[in-house]
Amino acid sequence: MMAMATMPTPPLSLIIPVLNEAATITTTLNRLEPLRQRGTEVIVIDGGSRDGTPELARPHCQKVIDAPSGRARQMNRGAEMASGRVLLFLHADTHLPDNADNHIGKALSRERCWGRFDIHLEGDSRLLPVVARSMNLRSRLTGIATGDQALFMTRAAFDAAGGFPDQPLMEDIAISRRLRRLSPPACLCSRVTSSGRRWDSQGAWRTIWLMWQLRWRYWRGVSPETLAREYRHVR
Question: Does residue 54 lie within any of the structural domains?
């Protein structure tokens, strides 16, 4: 009997956690079409949207999967369902640079098992370029990345780190610390473009001060649950 052909394993799985992202999801996924054409698997993980986000996403990706609400839980669920040897976690309002797959492939061939992109923030505030440069510099100095910078890692590294911790805030910082034990991050100069809507809507200085407070208190040992409650209250 003739052996059945097996489908090739995609080298890269792109995982997008969403919650009520109808305003942005179609644009985000359309920009990923060249990656899909080159074999990247695109998975959308919905945390209970009520605005039709899953229906809008479905024609533009391989999988739309339901998961309990919470970015960490959604990303872990996406990793469970992904087929790729490399995982990339992308926010719904963040756009990757051209040839992101090639950049990642080169970065992970140099004794690095994880990394992130530099970030450009798009919005009205004149402070956004300063915020972006500060984020990129801080990440290089500390080896800690944020979710806005499009974290990527080998599946082996994700498994060794135990995935994202089940916490409502600072999950990106927590997994960065775990991954940093495996290798330094690949800090790519190629930039993702992310929405600056948080700084525009809440005020740039106010948002900067809030985020630094949250990070400082997290470093001092305040629980993510407490910080998340306070963050939601402020927002």
Answer: yes
